[in-house]
Amino acid sequence: MMYDTLGAKTIELNGARYYVRDSGSGKDSILLLHGWPDDSTVWRNQVLVLLEAGYRVICPDLLGYGLSDKPQDVERYTFSALVNDMVSLLNCLGLEKVHCIAHDYGAVIGWDFATVYPNRLKTFVAMSVGHLASLLDISFDVLRYQWYLFLNIHKVAPQLYRASNGRLLREVLRTHPDREQIVNRVLELGVFESMGKLEQANPFPEILLAALQGELPKPLPVTVPTLGIWSTKDDFLWESHMKDSGKYVTAEWCYEQLEGAGHWFMLEQPQTTNHLLLNWLLKHP
Fold first, then answer.
1. Which of 129, 142, 230, 265 is the most exposed place for a label (fewest CB within 10 A)?
2. Helices 105-116 and 79-92, packing angle to 10 deg
3. In 3D, which of 169, 164, 165 has the Cα closest to residue 192?
4. CA angle at residue 154 from 230 to 73, to 5 degrees?
5. Contact at 8 Å (CB) between 224 and 218?
6. Do 182 and 56 form a contact (C-beta atoms < 8 A)?
7. CA separation for the pair 122, 30 (Å, rounded)
8. What average pLDDT score do residues 146-164 get?
9. How far apart are CA 64 and CA 41, in angstroms?
10. pLDDT reported for residue 213
11. CA 150 to each of CA 58, 79, 132, 157: distance values in angstroms, whole numbers, following the listed order
């Protein structure tokens, strides 16, 4: 895999060591942020295409995932702390601005990044997950998708996912092309506990409660050109969540729907995904 040819390094960011794959050079740099329950290898089908197009490709494992550190302090996993880590990563690599392409929880971090540090991003691509404010729109149809956000912060979640040789996890990941490899990894004691710290540090039920009580501040506008991609067979997110995110973007906003693929469309339909990404990047040199 071309991913394996990327240079591997460990970089300390704000007291935690991140495992980072980095091609080291290119006309522009692209930061790729993965989500749950993946690591940076989820981008393996995009790396070669981006390299051939002349970009520098940077793929970190998020904190608590893959080969990066797994601190015990839950507060170390707040979205704001993880965004600050990504800013520190750019500083360590001597990069002023990058394109950011992000999926799942990586996209949540990316939305925050684009909001708080717009001067560090050329463009942002949100894959599957739209703006948090859109996620908080309440309806029964929306709530039926959100069960895992309530389960995953519970202390019993790791045992549930590991029970009966990972039966529940296999069902949840039924559309993931890497399902068996991920299940086998998560069955190891401590792996799911580490990944779960991100969700515990950013508990969705508490965020939802604050939204319902009118305690959340008005969302700041996203001033970075943003592309949102949602796939029609996503079992975890719904179309309006992504499509309506454009109302929070004051810069250029583009929405693309990918037909016939599930949540991990970068693995399921790499050619179509890469076509969308390259078209977007080439429009924003």
1. 142
2. 70
3. 169
4. 95
5. no
6. no
7. 9
8. 90
9. 15
10. 92
11. 32, 17, 16, 10
Q: What is the mean pLDDT of residues 102-121?
A: 98
Q: Is the peptide bond before 285 cis (omega within 30 degrees of 0)?
A: no
User: Tokens 């956000």 identify what position?
Assistant: 149
pTM of the model: 0.96
Residues 6+ apart with CB under 8 A from 60: 18, 19, 20, 21, 31, 33, 40, 68, 86, 89
Closest CA to 186 of 156, 203, 163: 163
Confidence (pLDDT) at 71: 97
User: Rounded mean pLDDT of the chain?
Assistant: 94
Whether pLDDT at 105 is above 90: yes
Please report which helix (H) or strand (E) contains residue 228, including its range. strand 226-231
Q: Which residue has the tokens 């998708």?
A: 145
Tell me: pLDDT of 54 over 90.
yes
What pLDDT shows up at residue 206?
A: 92
Q: Which of 168, 1, 18 is nearest to 89 (CA)?
A: 18
SS3 6: coil
**Alpha carbon separation from 10 to 67, 68, 165, 211 (Å, rounded):** 9, 8, 32, 38
pLDDT value at position 87? 98
Return all residues near 185 (Cβ < 8 A) that are at least 6 apart.
Answer: 191
Cα angle 81, 76, 35 (rounded to 5 degrees) comes to 70
